[in-house]
């Protein structure tokens, strides 16, 4: 009897000692420092939101414009040019291929026109980005909040993908309409190149005011500034629907997975969403 009682006591002691032992993995998890999180961003007024939506892209365009100039010239290469022969008669000719690829276009533009050539159309580009994004970025959250109202202060985090895409498309359409005159002027200024590397029609505008005056006086007034606006609207709808919806969904998913709010997260989500939007938008951009 005493032997049986003693064996039961030994078994109980073993169970207690086993429960008190923790694995190395359990120890490391319990002792791991908590994830560092940044303090919440301060609430800003709608006016401040509009101002930042216009200012940030306007600053970025200074660095991205050389690549945009290359894109415009590569797209114009191979188009029919309208020229005049010796008698003054207007004829259409297909220009020879000037650029082998994008890098060749970049180098030739810099060689013949310098940095000024790569930054052609800077002022209309700034006006275009500010007028477009004050609607595209500034109205996205307010529109999405109306489409998906909740009691939560962060109401957009639970919005489904289709609502995000609709909100992004609406903002993109409004931005495209407001930016179309500046987009037209920018593209025509960028297409004007030195004779040896000129592609497409050469308009010979010397400034943004010269471009606006010539377009309005020779192409139907205000109507002329909105030439190609429907394609711009379609492009804005598709691009913004893809860009804004993918950006917000990626960011919300990352925060749910434990990533901290901050500049690094914003940049990573922006790069991925920009790549997605370009895939959908490029066919319309070529038209």
UniProtKB/TrEMBL annotation:
Coiled coil: none annotated. Keywords: Membrane, Mitochondrion, Mitochondrion inner membrane, Repeat, Transmembrane, Transmembrane helix, Transport. It is a multi-pass membrane protein. It comes from the Eukaryota. Residues 1-40 are annotated as: Disordered. Its main location: mitochondrion. Pfam families: Mito_carr. It is found in: Mitochondrion inner membrane. One of its GO terms (cellular component) is mitochondrial inner membrane. This is 17887_t:CDS:1. It comes from Acaulospora morrowiae.
């Amino acid at each position: 009897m005493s032997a049986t009682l003693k064996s039961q006591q030994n078994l109980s002691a073993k169970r207690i000692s086993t429960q008190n032992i923790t694995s190395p993995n359990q120890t490391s998890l319990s002792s791991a420092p908590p994830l560092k999180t940044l303090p919440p961003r301060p609430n800003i007024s709608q006016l401040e939101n509009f101002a930042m939506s216009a200012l940030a892209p306007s600053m970025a365009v200074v660095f991205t414009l050389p690549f945009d100039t290359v894109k415009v010239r590569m797209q114009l290469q191979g188009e029919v040019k309208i020229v005049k022969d010796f008698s003054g008669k207007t004829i259409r000719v297909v220009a020879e291929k000037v650029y082998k690829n994008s890098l060749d276009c970049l180098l030739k533009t810099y060689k013949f026109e310098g940095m000024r050539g790569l930054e052609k159309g800077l002022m209309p580009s700034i006006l275009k980005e500010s007028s477009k994004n004050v609607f595209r970025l500034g109205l996205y959250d307010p529109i999405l909040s109306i489409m998906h109202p909740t009691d939560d202060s962060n109401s957009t985090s639970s919005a489904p993908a289709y609502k995000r895409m609709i909100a992004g498309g609406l903002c993109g359409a409004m931005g495209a309409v407001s930016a179309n005159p500046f987009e037209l002027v920018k593209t025509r200024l960028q297409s004007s190149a030195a004779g040896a590397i000129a592609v497409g029609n050469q308009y010979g505008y010397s400034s943004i005011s010269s471009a606006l005056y010539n377009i309005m006086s020779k192409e139907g007034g205000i109507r002329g500034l909105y030439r190609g606006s429907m394609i711009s609207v379609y492009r804005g709808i598709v691009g913004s629907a893809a860009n804004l919806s993918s950006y917000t969904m990626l960011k919300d998913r990352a925060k749910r997975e434990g990533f901290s709010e901050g500049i690094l997260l914003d940049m990573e989500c922006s790069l991925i969403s920009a790549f997605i939007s370009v895939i959908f938008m490029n066919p319309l951009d070529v038209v």
